[in-house]
Design goal:
By secondary structure, the protein is α+β, with helices and mostly antiparallel strands. It is built from one helix and seven strands; from the N terminus they run H-E-E-E-E-E-E-E. Helix content is 17%, strand content 44%.
Length: 107
Amino acid sequence: MCLYRFLASLTAAVALALCAPYEALPGERPDPFGAECRTSVDGSHVVAHCHNPYVAIDRVTLHIECERWWDLDTDGTPADAEPAMTVRLAGRCWKEVRAAWVSHRKV
């Protein structure tokens, strides 16, 4: 009976290890990625400074949502934040800004 419990435990452990997601396996870590962005709004103007401390290039884009229904929301031109580089992104609304954020994408 002891051998049966040992084999059952061993089989369960192997099955769990094989079914674990890739990110959960011990000793395996994804490469760090993503520029740190600081966004500021001054009236209708938005400026974001993104610094990339990592090796992978981060393609950053500024997105602006305007407060007024008739004011067009904008998605800025993507910029590549290369390793140890800071990029400046800017945009505006005609009137007030409702929200602004930066999206990230690996190149």
